[in-house]
Automatic annotation (TrEMBL):
InterPro entries referenced in this protein's UniProt entry, alphabetically: Sialidase, Sialidase_sf
Organism name: Psychromarinibacter halotolerans
Lineage: Bacteria, Pseudomonadati, Pseudomonadota, Alphaproteobacteria, Rhodobacterales
The Sialidase domain, residue ranges: 50-359
Xref: SUPFAM superfamilies: Sialidases (SSF50939)
Any Pfam family: BNR_2
Protein name: Exo-alpha-sialidase
């Protein structure tokens, strides 16, 4: 399903799941939006579901959360599930809580000011509430439930500097833990985590957890460990997987291996042009200088290929890397209309109960693409 132009992509956004090779099926989800980004997959007894955010342009107030469910033939037409007219609603997470509630968590920010973001939670279809977390808190990874019933929500903090614009240069990682079903949260700092964002938890057994990070510095995927159910974390260290300052998705497979979906490339491999910031196109009037100090965020490194990487040593190394789809990955602009953006990014990866790997990712900022890889495909890797 190689589609090049925005018009061709739009024509293909019918949600129909088509077989493209043995053990592989693909679809472009049916969305009414010009821009679609940041997919989040989940599986429940009623099937596989996908959330993402859509609208005209990331950071605009018309950006809302959309949701679709997978049927035998493909994806249902997208349904809009949030409606704040004043904030850009982004990075959705769906969580089927142990108490039976189906919860939607997402971020909501004014314009490109991620340091003024709030995290909201609602029973799907009901009125949201802002979580008791500091302004500037962002989410991306799924919620996990500990053996003692506590909820674990990975965070990253878009830290502001007085009188200066947020740029990502002071972002750090943390884990939020709730023992009262999401009513209140306490935060556990990840030490030495400046630049580490999109924290993604992976259970290793017992009280042992690993977590993986996208890096603002566009160098490598980083990894940290906890031996006490997330109550403390080691200083993150680089893995052998390059990172381009774009999202990753990491899960533990049924066979015990760790699988990571990502774009395994970095700034050192691509010395081409850069973009100034994440929100270049918004055109917001803001006379504040960029934040000083911190790390050096790098924006504009190509976001391709979309790759699945596999580890047999609990995510310390990923020697097996398989390309799902390749392309130029151009991302110097978030524009979904003129065809200049050709990223394949922000993956969400799950393994369904039948063994199928489901992967969803941003396709040229125009669509959400879904690839289903059957159990027989995984057995051959």
């Amino acid at each position: 399903m190689a589609l090049a132009t925005p018009a061709e992509i739009a024509d293909g956004m019918d949600g129909i799941l088509r077989t493209t090779s043995p053990a592989r099926r693909e679809a472009l989800l049916d969305s009414p939006c010009i821009q679609n980004h940041a997919a989040f997959l989940s599986e429940a007894p009623d099937g596989v579901h996908c959330l993402w955010f859509g609208g005209s342009l990331e950071g605009k107030s018309d950006i809302s959360i959309y949701r679709s469910s997978l049927t035998d033939s493909g994806w249902e037409k997208a349904v809009r599930v949030t409606d704040d007219p004043d904030r850009s609603e982004q990075n959705p997470v769906e969580f089927d809580a142990p108490d039976g509630r189906r919860l939607l968590l997402h971020t909501a920010q004014p314009g490109g000011n991620q340091d003024r973001c709030v995290v909201r939670m609602r029973v799907l279809g009901e009125t949201p509430e802002d979580l008791t977390l500091p302004a500037g808190t962002f989410i991306r990874g799924p919620v996990h439930v500990r053996s003692d019933g506590a909820w674990m929500l990975p965070l990253f903090r878009c830290v502001s500097r007085p009188g200066e614009k947020w740029t990502g240069s002071h972002d750090t990682a943390a884990l939020a833990i709730s023992t009262d079903s999401g009513a209140t949260w306490r935060e556990i700092e990840v030490p030495g985590s400046i630049g580490c964002v999109h924290m993604t938890l992976v259970p290793l057994g017992g009280a042992r957890w690993a977590a993986f990070f996208r890096r603002r510095q566009a160098d490598f995927v980083y990894r940290t460990d906890s031996e006490d159910d997330g109550e403390s974390w080691s200083v993150p260290q680089a893995t052998d997987v390059p990172n381009n300052n774009s999202s990753i998705s990491v899960i533990r497979l049924a066979d015990g291996r760790i699988a990571m979906a990502c774009n395994p490339t970095n700034a050192a491999e691509h010395p081409e042009a850069r973009r100034e910031s994440l929100y270049d196109e918004l055109g917001e009037a803001d006379d504040r200088p960029n934040a000083s100090g911190g790390c050096n965020p790098t924006w504009g490194v190509p976001r391709a290929p979309m790759t699945l990487c596999f580890s047999e040593d609990e995510g310390k190394t990923f020697p097996v890397r398989l390309t799902v789809e390749d392309g130029p990955g151009s991302c110097l602009h978030n524009n979904s209309v003129d065809g200049s953006n050709k990223e394949m990014s922000y993956p969400s990866l799950i393994q369904a109960t039948d063994g199928t790997l489901h992967l969803a990712y941003t396709y040229h900022r125009r669509a959400i693409k879904h690839v289903a890889l059957g159990p027989e495909w995984l057995e051959q890797q």
